[in-house]
Amino acid sequence: MSDLSDYRKSYEKSELLESNIPEDPINLFNRWFHEAEDFGANEEVNAMTVSTIGLDGFPKSRVVLLKKFNEDGFIFYTNYNSEKGKAIAENPKICLSFFWHTMERQVIIKGIAKRTSEITSDSYFESRPDGSKLGAIVSNQSEVVPSRDYLEENLKQLEKDFESMVIPRPKHWGGFLVTPLEVEFWQGRPNRLHDRIRYTSQEDYSWKIERLSP
């Protein structure tokens, strides 16, 4: 057994004050995202944890890549028949979280997920490398397979089948748009007195801003 009680870090890189934040969370997320990107220490600054409630009633989290964000919300892509896809179809209330440790920052987003339009999914799929397109077709995501060789042999066969051909997007693969209802920004501070600012969506489309105790 490992005792981790002595793992400690003092967070001292920045601060998050009400006097220096915008009225909506998307603008603040945009600022933080590009600051993390410019800092250069995060190889995949768009990596995020997606948490869902599974069909078995248990929560489950996994890391996926954010592919777009704007005033409408946050978009990622997946196999709709995967475990997460089925979970979202059953319960579209999900959570996204980002942890940019080099910036000592975390963002937690509660929202409602819905499928993007087929045009949006087609457009992104067409932008992917052929290998990624074929990977989306060959993988029955989350299903049990007999071996690694099984997947690789199927991929080789698809490469032959689609040689010199346009690879179409499978209908079971596409995007989810997560419309945020609540966005919390966490900035590490000394002595564990971290800054936590929460934006909550209001009926008039404005955002309520509150400071939370660390």
Average pLDDT: 93
Query: Quick one: overall form?
Result: globular
Percent helix, as a range, is 25-40%
Radius of gyration: 20 Å
End-to-end distance, in Å? 29 Å
- The CATH architecture category of one domain equals Roll
Largest sheet: 9 strands, antiparallel
Task: Sum up the structure in keywords.
26% helix; alpha+beta; 9 strands; globular; Pnp Oxidase, Chain A; 214 residues
Summarize the entry for a quick read.
By secondary structure, this protein is of the alpha+beta class. The protein has helices at residues 25-39, 83-90, 118-127, 130-138, 148-161; strands spanning 47-53, 59-65, 68-70, 73-79, 93-100, 105-115, 173-187, 195-201, 207-211. The longest helix has 15 residues, at 25-39.
Structure characterization notes:
With 214 residues, the chain is an alpha+beta fold. The chain has a domain at 25-123 and 173-211: Roll (Pnp Oxidase, Chain A), CATH 2.30.110. 26% of the residues lie in helices and 33% in strands. The protein contains five helices and nine strands, in the order H-E-E-E-E-H-E-E-H-H-H-E-E-E. It has helices at residues 25-39, 83-90, 118-127, 130-138, 148-161; strands spanning 47-53, 59-65, 68-70, 73-79, 93-100, 105-115, 173-187, 195-201, 207-211. Strands 1, 2, 3, 4, 5, 6, 7, 8 and 9 form a nine-stranded antiparallel beta sheet that branches. The longest helix has 15 residues, at 25-39. The model has no long low-confidence stretch (mean pLDDT 93).
